[in-house]
User: What shape does this take?
Amino acid sequence: MQDLNVLLVQSMLQWENGPANRDRFTGLLKGHEGTTDLVVLPEMFTTGFSMNSVELAEAMDGPTVAWMRDQARKLDAALYGSVIISEGGRHFNRGLFVEPGGRVTTYDKRHLFRYADETSHFSPGRERVVVEWRGWRLLLQICFDLRFPVFARNRGDYDAILYIASWPEPRSYAWKQLLIARAIENQCYVVGVNRVGMDGKGIHYAGGSALIDPKGAASAIDPDGSVLTGRLDRASLEDFRKKFPVAMEADAFTLDR
Assistant: This one.
């Protein structure tokens, strides 16, 4: 199976301004057509980490899903990022994995960030979602999920975890260490994409986006600009799992929803 080329797009965001943010990411992705397999964007990449869920929510047939489909087609790559979505009278911090052919796989953030009152404005997801893309099985996660290793436990069903985040600078040490921990304990690649800059609430974000290999080493970290490139190496992953089969001693369990 092939390796997977990844673009980690770490960027500032215009507060609660979907059109401006879509335009910004269009510019950042220009020139990468046909050079990558997967583009990973930050959490709530069209608005910033806003709790104005009612005012800012889009539908699944709204402008951001349409934009992601268009970009996926132009780049011949899948895109993953989260957006405020309204569905069935509820609001979700929804991860959208969009493929060039238009297929959209969704993951609704399970662990809402109570400290920022996210629990009052969004409904939590319940499903653990793994999507297959170009021979790779990818576990979709969002920000605060990173602190809950049981939910991300590898049951032999994925090869990499994608974490998209709005992770504030004061807790950046935890962000960096937990990305490494998830990679080591699950013998998988971890892709973590965080935003940078100041949001509309005066909270600062310091990035720290990284691609971590299954041994816990950062094969790419903090670009000079906004776009960081990395590669998931299939042969290296399979060789490491074969030579050091940690999962054979893992405890069996199921999640109680």
Summary: The domain at 4-247 is CATH 3.60.110.10 (Nitrilase/N-carbamoyl-D-aminoacid amidohydrolase).
